[in-house]
């Protein structure tokens, strides 16, 4: 695959980020070197190749570290928990952690949860949550200067 | 090194809350002090790199920020390049000035940074800070810089290599240095108990460990060696200048941007971390100093807390870190911070740092990081400065 193929990649706003059926994140995986990124990019960050294919990542990952944030942000009541997660077959991603009572247990296994426009993580084995998420904040592509 | 570049003059406007002062006022004081220190007037400046991060969102001056403040001090009709690299903008302007002189494009270049973060609505300042990340990816997650550092430190508390007491003790040291710095925002001595009892921000960080909203400006005049002779004053030259942008984290791990820049800088200088006598590091949260001591090679990985406990990084230690009080105490007006670090190190190398002077430093290191790309800083610059004359 040629670098020029990246010229025709779907606009970022049209690339899927979530697989609702699988309940997992969809990102890019380089067919040449295997590097992953979420969300998918047009060109591989590791080898510079353009054969980046969309793929569904594992739901399972490891919560590497987390923090309980005490300062609210628009659409987010404090406290809320943020964490760094290494997906089992994917990239390192950051997101909200819901339902983790014992932060001292970190590192620990977690499971990704997705809805139409967002994702979060719950401790592995915890009962599937019913979407008790608080935030609805999301910027349009216009606001990001894209 | 192809060509010597020297720091000919430095200047700052005190950091803090300056409600009655505009960006022009802040930049005027820092800029004029740097010119006076270099012994030149505005017409001696051949080129300018101007750093500001937030005036677009906070003051509405989205464009030509440098030109608008520079004409207040008589600098116009020269190339002005506006630089934005989040919290690393100041050192980016400095790095560009070094390159301009090395390239032969100019002999005397001003690098200036200015920021005014206190505005009527504090949430706008937080919004502007949040934009130091890829909003297309992280908007709405509630990522704040305090949370980023909180996550980095939590992992180290979990593995036992850093204790909560260390986090507090570093903040105590920062404040103790800030007390001695007339340019510092927070000039109040605190105790470890006060630090730990202050308001929780993002576990394990508390209020007194964190840099806060700040106004200020800093400026540096750089010159080709010999272009601005200053007889009778020690010469400070630029030994190394290394920069990188952020990169996607490798799930298997790997060196940080700060480590990569430091390695390149040591290589350029033909020196190593053991040669550094004083350092200013990017402690947007005071305990980050422990992490950067490791990443810059001052101590082995995992030993940051032990290194700190040994007293090595105190003002009278063998490698004082953040004698200015660092970002946490001196203050962190985003676009000015990198240049404030370099101004501080210049004063230290000349022996002009007053009550916070460290013992006869010869080589100084500045590390300035900005923004966040899901794990790694979006921009990092490491500079090494050297005093060329012996101490007598
Ligand atoms: Zn690749």
TrEMBL record, chain A:
Pfam families (alphabetical): OB_ChsH2_C, zf-ChsH2
Residue ranges constituting the ChsH2 rubredoxin-like zinc ribbon domain according to the UniProt record: 20-52
InterPro entries: ChsH2_C, ChsH2_Znr, NA-bd_OB-fold, Thioester_dehydratase-like
Span list, region Disordered: 124-146
Gene3D superfamilies from the UniProt entry: 6.10.30.10
Domain spans labelled ChsH2 C-terminal OB-fold: 58-106
Compositional bias annotation for Basic and acidic residues: 130-146
Identification of the protein by name: DUF35 domain-containing protein
Species: Spongiactinospora gelatinilytica
Automatic annotation (TrEMBL), chain B:
Pfam family, one: Thiolase_N
SUPFAM superfamilies: Thiolase-like
Domain Thiolase C-terminal: 257-380
Membrane-spanning segments: none
Domain annotation Thiolase N-terminal: ranges: 5-224
Family matches, as CDD domains: SCP-x_thiolase
GO molecular function, one term: acyltransferase activity, transferring groups other than amino-acyl groups
Cross-referenced InterPro entries: Thiolase, Thiolase-like, Thiolase_C_2, Thiolase_N
Protein name as annotated: Thiolase
Species this chain originates from: Spongiactinospora gelatinilytica
């Amino acid at each position: 695959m040629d670098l020029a193929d990246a010229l025709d990649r779907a606009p970022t706003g049209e690339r899927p980020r979530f697989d609702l059926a699988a309940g997992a994140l969809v990102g890019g995986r380089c067919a040449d070197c295997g590097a992953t990124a979420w969300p998918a990019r047009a060109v591989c960050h590791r080898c510079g190749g353009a054969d980046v294919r969309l793929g569904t990542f594992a739901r399972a990952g490891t919560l590497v570290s987390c923090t309980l944030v005490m300062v609210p942000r628009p659409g987010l009541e404090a406290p809320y928990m943020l964490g760094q997660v290494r997906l089992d077959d994917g990239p390192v991603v950051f997101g909200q952690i819901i339902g983790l009572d014992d932060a001292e247990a970190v590192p620990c296994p977690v499971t990704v949860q997705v809805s139409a426009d967002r994702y979060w993580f719950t401790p592995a084995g915890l009962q599937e949550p019913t979407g008790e998420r608080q935030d609805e904040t999301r910027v349009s592509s216009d606001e990001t200067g894209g | 090194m192809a060509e010597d570049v020297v720091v000919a003059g430095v200047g700052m406007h005190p950091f803090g809350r300056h409600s009655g002062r505009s960006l022009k006022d802040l930049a005027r004081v820092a800029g004029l002090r740097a010119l006076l220190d270099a012994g030149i007037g505005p017409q001696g400046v051949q080129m300018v790199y101007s750093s500001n991060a937030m005036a677009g969102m906070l003051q509405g001056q989205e464009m030509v920020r440098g030109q608008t403040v520079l004409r207040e001090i008589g600098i116009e009709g020269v190339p002005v390049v506006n630089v934005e690299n989040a919290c690393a903008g100041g050192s980016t302007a400095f790095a560009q000035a070094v390159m301009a002189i090395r390239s032969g494009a100019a002999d005397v270049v001003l690098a200036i940074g200015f920021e005014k973060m206190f505005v009527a609505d504090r949430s706008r300042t937080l919004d502007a800070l949040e934009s130091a990340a890829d909003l297309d990816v992280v908007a709405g997650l509630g990522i704040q810089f305090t949370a980023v550092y909180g996550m980095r430190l939590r992992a180290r508390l979990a593995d036992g290599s850093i204790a909560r007491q260390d986090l507090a003790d570093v903040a105590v040291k920062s404040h103790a240095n800030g007390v001695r710095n007339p340019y510092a925002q927070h000039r109040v001595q605190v105790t470890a108990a006060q630090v730990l009892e202050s308001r929780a921000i993002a576990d394990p960080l508390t209020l007194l460990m964190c840099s806060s909203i700040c106004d200020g400006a800093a400026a540096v005049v750089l010159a080709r060696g010999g272009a601005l002779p200053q007889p009778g004053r020690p010469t400070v030259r630029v030994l190394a200048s290394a920069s990188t942008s952020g990169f996607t984290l490798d799930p298997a791990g790997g060196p940080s941007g700060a480590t990569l820049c430091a390695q390149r800088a040591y290589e350029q200088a033909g020196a190593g971390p053991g040669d550094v006598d004083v350092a200013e590091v990017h402690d947007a949260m005071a305990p980050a100093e422990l992490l950067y001591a490791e990443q810059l090679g001052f101590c082995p990985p995992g030993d940051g807390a032990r290194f700190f406990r040994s007293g090595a990084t105190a003002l009278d230690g063998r490698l004082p870190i953040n004698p200015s009080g660092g970002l946490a105490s001196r203050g962190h007006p985003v676009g000015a911070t990198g240049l404030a670090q370099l101004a501080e190190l210049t004063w230290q190398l000349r022996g002009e740092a007053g009550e916070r002077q460290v013992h006869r430093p010869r080589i100084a290191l500045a590390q300035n990081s900005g923004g966040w790309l899901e794990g790694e800083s979006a921009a990092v610059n490491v500079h090494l400065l050297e005093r060329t004359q012996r101490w007598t």
